[in-house]
């Protein structure tokens, strides 16, 4: 499946997009990505075993929080997007 990365997550991963196969859930996919991209990437995505509040994960344009969260099932032709949360200000 295709995983698109945005903002500084691209820097952590060394690119805008990666291909990943054989991941059945978002949790498994994110675990695979953390294994590839290291501790700094993992700290952005997770607070212990839960998804951190610093990242938004979309599967085919839908926020996983509106689906089954980390247990959202994936198919090989899905597109997953990872965005850091943007804070506004004056």
UniProtKB/TrEMBL annotation:
<dbReference type="InterPro" id="IPR016155">
    <property type="entry name" value="Mopterin_synth/thiamin_S_b"/>
</dbReference>
<dbReference type="InterPro" id="IPR010038">
    <property type="entry name" value="MoaD_arc-typ"/>
</dbReference>
<dbReference type="InterPro" id="IPR003749">
    <property type="entry name" value="ThiS/MoaD-like"/>
</dbReference>
<protein>
    <recommendedName>
        <fullName>Sulfur carrier protein CysO</fullName>
    </recommendedName>
</protein>
<dbReference type="InterPro" id="IPR052045">
    <property type="entry name" value="Sulfur_Carrier/Prot_Modifier"/>
</dbReference>
<dbReference type="InterPro" id="IPR012675">
    <property type="entry name" value="Beta-grasp_dom_sf"/>
</dbReference>
<dbReference type="Pfam" id="PF02597">
    <property type="entry name" value="ThiS"/>
</dbReference>
<dbReference type="InterPro" id="IPR054834">
    <property type="entry name" value="SAMP1_3"/>
</dbReference>
């Amino acid at each position: 499946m295709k995983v698109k990365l945005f903002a500084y997550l691209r820097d952590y991963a060394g690119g805008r997009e990666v291909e990943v196969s054989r991941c059945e859930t978002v949790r498994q996919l994110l675990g695979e990505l953390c294994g590839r991209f290291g501790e700094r990437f993992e700290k952005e995505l997770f607070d212990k075993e839960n998804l951190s509040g610093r990242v938004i994960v979309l599967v085919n344009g839908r926020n996983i929080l509106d689906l089954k969260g980390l247990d959202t099932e994936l198919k090989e032709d899905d597109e997953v997007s990872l965005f850091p949360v943007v804070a506004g200000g004056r």
